Every structure is written in C-alpha cells, then in structure tokens.
Amino acid sequence: MLAIRNLSIAFPRPGGEARVVDDVSVEVGRGESLGIVGESGSGKSMLSLATIGLLPKSARTSGEILLEGKNILTMGERELCSLRGRRIGMIFQEPMTALNPAMTAGEQIAEGIRLHRGTGRAEARAESLRLLDRVRIPDPARRIDSYPHEMSGGQRQRVGIAIALALKPDLLIADEPTTALDVTVQKDILDILDELVADLGLSLILISHDLGVIARSTDRTLVMCRGRAVEAGPTESVLRRPSAPYTRDLIAALPRRARAGLGEEAPLAAGGAR
Ligand SMILES: Nc1ncnc2c1ncn2[C@@H]1O[C@H](COP(=O)(O)OP(=O)(O)OP(=O)(O)O)[C@@H](O)[C@H]1O
Ligand SMILES: [Mg+2]
C-alpha cells in the first residue's frame, strides 16, 4: 500500500546541501508493520514527515512516496490535507506538544471527525467516546471532558492515538510513541498498536531507537544510519542475523539485560553481536 522509492531529502546549506535521507527504498503492505530504527539524526523522522507531506518548506526531495500508486511528494496542499488523517494517521513522540492545551480530549478527537466527515456534534462525541474506550483510557466518560494538562503522559498518548484513529486511516505512523513513557505504560501502548494492526488490518510504521520495541511489535525492520538504509528485512532475521556492521553495533550497544530480553522475542545469534 505504501512504496517509498529512492527517496532522498536534502536541506540547502552554505556551499551545497545536507542530505538527511539518501536513496531509501522500502515498502509497507496492508496490515503489515514496519519498524524503523537508527541512531539520533539518522533521518527517521524526516522520512515519516515526508510520508505525510509535512517536511519543512526548505527541504528538497527526489524519488517517490507512493500511497496506493499516487505520489505524495507531488501532491498539492489540498490533496495532502485530505490524505492526512483519512489515509494516514500520525502519532507523535511527545503527546503534550501534539495536543491542543485549550481543548478537551473529546473536542480534539471530534474535531477531525466533524471537519472531514461532516458528522453532527452529538454523533462525533459518541464516536470520540468509543475511540477513548478503544485505546483503553480509564473512565472514558470522564476523560472525554478532560484537558491535556489534567491527564498523565500515558493517558495523553492514548488520546493522541484516538485522534490518529478518528478518521479510520489505513496507515498509522508512530514516531517514538512510547519514548516519553514508563515501561508499564509503554507496554500498554504497544499492546494497543499491536491490536489495531491485528483487528483493523492497519498498516503501521513504528519508529523507535529501542530494539526491544521493534522486536515485539513489527514484522519488518529498516535500519537507518546517516540517512541511508543499511539493512532491511523481516524483523526476526534482522535482529537474529544482522548483516550490516552498523546493526550489529546497535545490538551490541544494548545493555546485557536488554539484549537478553531481545533474545526472548528474537534470540540473537550465538555471542550476540560480534
Ligand atoms: N529544518 C531542518 N533543516 C535542516 N536540517 C534539518 C532540519 N530538520 C532536521 N534536520 C536534519 O536532518 C537530519 C535527520 O533528522 P531526523 O529528525 O530525521 O532524525 P531522527 O533519526 O528522527 O533522529 P531522532 O532519533 O533524534 O529523532 C538531522 O541531521 C537533522 O539535523
Ligand atoms: Mg526523530
């Protein structure tokens, strides 16, 4: 459903340009989850922003991002607007910055539904309540009227997911969705994402620097280093039998216990990294 072909993204710089994504190709099938992992600054967020047409204005792109055959990179703002939310939903790392502090959870979820689908107020509110229930927020009937500052980080992230789901997208992009959360909440959020892929047949792009997260929640993995795709394949084989030295370094850099945890999901080759 999504095919990224030879995508490059560059920013003008005095005396030339800085290429932050360099000739990356990757595909995501319907109902499939793709993990993207790589060090800070490797271009993961730029790749996902390009996919929803939200790159900074100064970015220069080449290649194609095809959503069901249509190139997102050449779409106009109107076409992009109808694509965001309705075809592709985005979940951000820090839900506080993604949410509007002056609107209740329910208003923010309902806004897109009313705007894009012309649904009436009462019906949009009922749908918001169903979505809050779906992301397993405690006491949704009360939370629907809460403001972001009245909620915990995990609750805010659930609202973020409900907003992303509101327009029933086919593809969800989650850029470090659990980084700001503690491990138990992290597990809940990943469970919800897993469920959405399994029950609704959503496609998922999950960006994380945490190989444990990638191991438990994705079918395929793309490893990025300095804007390039250094390795891609089924998650299990990428983690068990990494072929790129960079991937081996990423695995080796994990604390021993985390590496062992990874081993439970996808045991590493004898000796772990190298
Ligand atoms: N507006 C911009 N102008 C110029 N360069 C930028 C701009 N935004 C980001 N970059 C550069 O693009 C590169 C890739 O950034 P990106 O945010 O995609 O990294 P990332 O892999 O998501 O990192 P992290 O794990 O820290 O989120 C970085 O080197 C960054 O400095
Ligand atoms: Mg990023």
Folded structure, characterized:
The chain has 274 residues and is of the alpha/beta class. It has helices spanning 44-51, 77-83, 95-98, 105-117, 121-134, 140-143, 153-165, 183-200, 211-217, 235-240, 245-252, 256-265; strands at residues 2-13, 16-28, 33-38, 60-67, 70-71, 88-91, 171-175, 203-207, 220-225, 228-234. α4 (105-117) runs parallel beside α7 (153-165) and α5 (121-134) packs across α7. The longest helix has 18 residues, at 183-200. The protein is globular. Mean pLDDT is 91; it is low at 264-274. Bound molecules: adenosine-5'-triphosphate and magnesium ion. Magnesium ion is lined by residues 44-45, 175.
Bound molecules: adenosine-5'-triphosphate, magnesium ion
Q: Compute the separation of the termini in Å.
A: 36 Å
Tally of alpha and pi helices? 12
Helix % is 40-55%
- In this structure, how is the largest beta sheet organized? 6 strands, mixed
Shape: globular
State the secondary-structure class: alpha/beta
Can you tell me the residue ranges where pLDDT is under 50 for at least 5 consecutive residues? 264-274
Instruction: Give the percentage of residues in beta strands.
Output: 15-25%
What is shown here, in short?
The protein is an alpha/beta fold and 274 residues long. 41% of the residues lie in helices and 25% in strands.
For the structure shown, list the relevant keywords.
single chain; 274 residues; alpha/beta; binds adenosine-5'-triphosphate; binds magnesium ion
Write the layout of secondary structure elements.
Layout: E1 2-13, E2 16-28, E3 33-38, H1 44-51, E4 60-67, E5 70-71, H2 77-83, E6 88-91, H3 95-98, H4 105-117, H5 121-134, H6 140-143, H7 153-165, E7 171-175, H8 183-200, E8 203-207, H9 211-217, E9 220-225, E10 228-234, H10 235-240, H11 245-252, H12 256-265
The site of adenosine-5'-triphosphate has 13 residues, from strand 2 and helix 1.
